[in-house]
Amino acid sequence: MLFEFDPDQRLWQGSVREVVAKECPPALVRAVADDGADTVALWKVYAGLGWTELTDPAEAVELAIVLEELGRATDPTPYLATMTQFAPLAPGAGEPERTGAAVLDGVTARRDGRGWVLEGTARHVLDGDRADRLAVVTGEGVFVVDAAEVTATRAAVFDPVLHVADVAFGGVRVGQEQRTGADPGRARHIALAGMAMTMVGACRRILDLTLEHVRTRHQFGAPIGSFQAVQHKAADMHVAVERAKALAYFAALTIAADDPRRRVAAAMAKAAAGECQSLVVRHGLQLFGAMGFTWENDLQFALKRALAGEQLLGGAAEHRALIAKECHAVEL
């Protein structure tokens, strides 16, 4: 496996970064948080550029590049849920302009004649309240249903532009044609890698803002970035981000190559991203001082996106335990 971008990937990264800087600036994110600004136009930009068509596992690295930049920008659209949770569970059912979400647990399927009846309530579904379609994982398989058939209630979360919802299924009937045959295990690996990459992008934004602050903030007649204690914290943040980034891209590479190590690689990526956000959030807030806690400071959006990522799909401790279990099994 190559751990450096090839020329096409570097060009892709530069193009994505340029588009995100133009179409998803901090002012838009703040408008969504403050005034509930619409994100439909931004989603159409992503779809028009072909970003919503990166559903082939072989394109996992290219998708990861997009996710890193969107994580850095605190993307307010359902892109993460659609591309890393819904799409892997609904292969062949993708429509580039439609959004999707994944219901991973809490729903059962009961056989009824030639079809099934879905019942139950799923909690904390990412973008479950604004997706056009839902991929529902049950013991009988994965089913795709229209959002109009369920009841979704958005839950209050600390990230003001993140949508998380409780989704209730009150006897939704589905047929064989709605059953996807997807592998939930493989789909979970993609979801974990995508979440880790998003967290890396958010942590990179925290680091960038912090470095800018310590270069320009003066105390005792000198930039605070010239103080050794500040430099040590900034260096620790950089190392944590680079480590998490390397593991997230390694997970993307194993997915692209259909490498059997992708299960452990995805867990390693999510664990490293969780450990990264813990350090980067703590140091970033401390180096900003009281300014870091204010609503007016854009630092808050990256902080909250990184913290939210740790709560979704299992935290660092859970994934470290999974890695330890896998390693122990190999040794036996």
UniProtKB/TrEMBL annotation:
InterPro entries: Acyl-CoA_Oxase/DH_mid-dom_sf (IPR046373), AcylCo_DH-like_C (IPR036250), AcylCo_DH/oxidase_C (IPR009075), AcylCoA_DH/ox_N_sf (IPR037069), AcylCoA_DH/oxidase_NM_dom_sf (IPR009100). Its cofactor is FAD. Keywords: FAD, Flavoprotein, Oxidoreductase. Residues 194-326 form the Acyl-CoA dehydrogenase/oxidase C-terminal domain. It comes from the Bacteria. Belongs to the acyl-CoA dehydrogenase family. This is Acyl-CoA dehydrogenase. The lineage of its organism: Bacteria, Bacillati, Actinomycetota, Actinomycetes, Pseudonocardiales.
